[in-house]
Here is the input.
Amino acid sequence: MSRRVAEEMGLTEQEVSYQIRFEGNTTDRTKIKFMTDGVLLKEIETDFLLNKYSVIIIDEAHERSVYTDILIGLLSRIVPLRHKRRRPLKLVIMSATLRVEDFTANRRLFKVTPPVVKVESRQFPVTVHWNKRTPSDYVGEAFKKACKIHRTLPDGGVLIFVTGQNEVNDIIRRLKKAFPYKPPSKQEVKKKAREAPDASNESTSAEKMPELTEEEEEAIFFNPKLKRQKKSKAAADLPEINLDSYAIQPPAEEGEDLLEGSDVDPDDLEEEDDEAERAAAAAPGAAHQPLYVLPLYAMLSTERQAQVFQPPPAGTRLCVVATNVAETSLTIPGIKYVVDTGKVKQKLYEKTTGVSAFQVMWESQAAANQRAGRAGRVAPGHCYRLFSSALFNDEMERFARPEIQRKPVEDVLLQMKAMHVDRVTNFPFPTPPDAAQLRAAEERLLQLGALERPETDAGGAADAETHVTPLGRAMSCFPVSARFAKMLVLSEQHGLLPFTVCLVAALTVQEVLLENPLTAGDSDKAKQLWGEWMTLRRSWAGTGDSLLLGDSMVLIRAVGAAEYSGCTPEFCQRYGLRLKAMKEIRKLRVQLTNQINLVVPSAAAAVDPRQPPPSEPQCRLLRQVLLAGLPDHVARRVEPDEIKNAEDRPKWKGAYRCTSIEEPVFLHRGSVLKREAPQFVVYQEIYETNKLYMRGVTAIEPEWLATLCPGQCTLSKPLQEPPPDYDPVSGRVRCHVNATFGRAVWPLPPVEAEYPAGLDRYRLFAVHLLQGHVCPSLLEFVKVLLAPPATMTKSWARLHPRTDSFLKTLVAETCDNRDRLLEVWRSRPQYLLSAYKEWVPEVLHEKLDKMWPPCAKSPEL
Here is the structure.
């Protein structure tokens, strides 16, 4: 985009630049800068008033991503602040299908209603055709409609909208079978080149050549090699029409026929009841020109995506089968017919549990209008909607729900808390998240240690009093989710950082490991290839702690193997890796490493393309790091004897139970831990198809839960056996307790923990202090104490002045551990002296005066 604008304005790339997540080319001479919403949000963190900008334009605002909503909310406050300082900032929010009321009627967002400017777009009229009935098999109906268009209507590209990659491949396979296209062989190409007339005789004067459309110029601009080919074909392929002679507004549905000179009325393509006609539509089209069919979806490699912008081979019709990535801001040259199934696949999240599910649903009316507009970019076009107008009016929402209301918002909450927006409920969102989302997000961040609530507000209201911790502030520096950010923060020890960076990058990118081998419908070959992939992945997982690291270990080894081999397409295809994902992981590793070096310069992190896999001890530590970052993503295997009802046993066979979900969840078929079925696991996410499945599974030990997930555990009273004891390393009194995990109250093995706060902890600390365990220099006085130290724990201890005085002195300064005691002694050296003198004979008081505080005589303290 920046290159195109620079070219049209006659400027250089130093003046029109870009900045995206992984790269940029901005300079001191930059006047226009294209960037993503996330990049601008990061800039606001360091320069809240955006002093180096005079105009901010937010395009495609109707997509309503989370960061766009936050950005608009912040800019609604920045603009008036800049105006008061007499350095005005102009904010322009643009969209073709925006719900304007969210902005103009939102007084919290804009106190003064902003002006609304409507600009007529340069688009040719599009005739919309409806199905009389809405079919259940929309994929089959889309195939039949494409066949009819190709058989009966004049030239023009066809764009088919479906919901996902599998549907794209299904329609492409059927269309290629019905209208096959065979690329010319090398011999045929050479023969045509020899028979072609001399190039000098083909040249024509410039004034005889018809003008190229804007989209064709764009294709040539991004692919200069097309320029010569385009010029030589222009006279034959391009119609001689004046692109400015058409009305901008599309006519009504019952208006004129847009295909002048055609013997076929486009309305004849409406749904018919004649079964013979349906069969004819699906019959092979040997008598018709070939169909040049291309896919377009987000997971497709960049090179294959770019093919849709190149002109189709001579004598063929272009047909693009796409997901909703082709819906906005993407113009495919030559598209004249759009087939809209009306369906879209969205990733939905349950607000409180965070369970995700890809669900196929009806698109919004705004999205349907966007899809129809794809047919009117280069010439008058037609949009065939495979649903009825009644369904469009009665069942489709006018606009899609904003992303901020469809997914967990803990990352948003942490980001805003780090930007000192303490009361997020008062933030001017265009469409605010609901209270349940904020409460669930706050609870997750409290469990992660990113937020804390003052002790005076232990049960406080959602979001009202919490504030970000130093850990949370460090986590907010990384451009990943809060869970992964905590993993990075904890990994600066034991040489774990390179592995955690690699793992976080791989977990952040979607679909790194392929699960559906593409073998042109050959199911036996697909099963064989899938078996080879799984055998390789199990070998990558290894044994011992390496195997228990599970799917995370497979990702680390996959990234390492790809980098070692040079990340070639052949390697990725052979071993079931998605090439585009591997390239994204490489960029994200570099970005995270640079960010770590900025935040923690002493880390001196670097990306090693030949990084060896982690050792067994490191694998064990990585399992603990994963648990610390996913404390609420723990699942426990269900034993057969736990299911009392015999009818439910088949349902729970091989299942796991999560803390926040009542339904059974299962290990994904691609998990290397499926055979081992460990008792406790952590998972990256749960998604729903016909069942609930866990993705990204790692085995953990149950005794880790109380230490690494304290917010999820409920501890019993201290056990008498083994008795509480003093820990010389931490300087605190510790004990053994029984523990349960989560709301499901899963029993855990007895664990060692710090003794619960209260008077008993002060009494036990006093015992160890008197015994010389806290300050070894007091050991010489133990034998002459006037009472046994254990007297401090007796029920009648308060009846003795010395025990009562010693306890009250410790409580007064909250000294129930060694660190706090040393801190008080640094400010008050005589603290506790008089209380301790009551425990020793008077003859030793002078000696105590000279040596007090006892830490001075204990170098180890």
Summary: The CA atoms of residues 293 and 814 lie 75 Å apart. The chain has six domains: 2-104, 126-185+212-344+363-394, 403-475, 482-629, 634-700, 757-861. The radius of gyration is 34 Å. DSSP finds 32 helices and 25 strands in the chain.
